[in-house]
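Course exercise 7: structure representation. Students receive a sequence record and must write out the corresponding structure in token form. The form below is the worked example handed out in class, using Aldo/keto reductase (327 residues). Read each field label carefully; the graders check that inputs and outputs are placed in the correct fields and that the protein name is recorded exactly as given.

STUDENT ID: A-19
EXERCISE PROTEIN: Aldo/keto reductase
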Amino acid sequence: MKYRKLGNTGLSVSEVSFGTWAIGGDWGTSRDEDGLKGLQLAMEQGVNFFDTADVYGSGHAEELLAKATKGKQDDIHIATKFCRAGDIHDPDNYSARRISEYCEQSLRRLEREAIDLYQIHCPPIEILRDGSVFEALDQLKAEGKIRHYGVSVETIEEGLLCLEYPGVEALQVIFNLFRQQPALELLPRAAAHGAGILVRLPLASGLLTGKFTETTTFQENDHRNFNANGEQFNVGETFAGLPFVTGARLARKLEWIAEGRGNMARASMRWILDHPAVSCVIPGFKNEAQVADNLATLDVPSYSSADMERLSAFYQAEVAPHIRGGV
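STUDENT ANSWER:
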């Protein structure tokens, strides 16, 4: 395993870490037994960082992490998120009282005394502009309930705004071959600020595995079905904001990246890790096989400057015009 600094937090995190949305819910059928085996394999291979949220399976993902990491609290770092269990547009949802309640509930499910990284879960930009939410987080930090805090953002504008607050130590962003825009300004600014970068949706909800065709369908309880066009939450969270059929077509044009890199999934995450401002990628998983395949990214060769330029030109010309949900 290779590790990188998570900004100025003092934490070193595994380059390939994991998100737990898929084992919590909203990605079709999953089995707890498979999820726990996947977590165990990841830790055995040196993964020391996991991302979750209080709404993943209504707290179920946090409970699975508690079971898998019992007795390893000092070695395994956990990031969780809050705010989407309430009305994200209501300012009271971000009051010191309410955030403290969210935090206590997550601590109870995680069976921990403190949360390593506590993140606001994609709040409206008006909440970030107001800034009082950060005062509440400073208070939780002073109380020892959280060690560090950050923000999971939908857009570059939101990320840049967060960096204006000195207490923000990490940003979680959508960044992949279908969402390349953060590399231009947000990543360099985060590095200058000393903020870590967690990359979610590195495979664009599976599009960048190359396994989907235009006729692929998804289960009713899979967000790739019920949020394909942003029906439930920001459309950027599903297929990186691309219409599915368009994304499946564009993914075929990227098949060349797998040459010498095992498969498209590993090649796609290698491209992300080739950006030094990135602290880690946090792909999802449902079982041991997916964990093992994602970890093989570490053995994949980096891209040449010519390849990077080719991929950038492809994004600007063929992908960017189709993105929905902001960038």
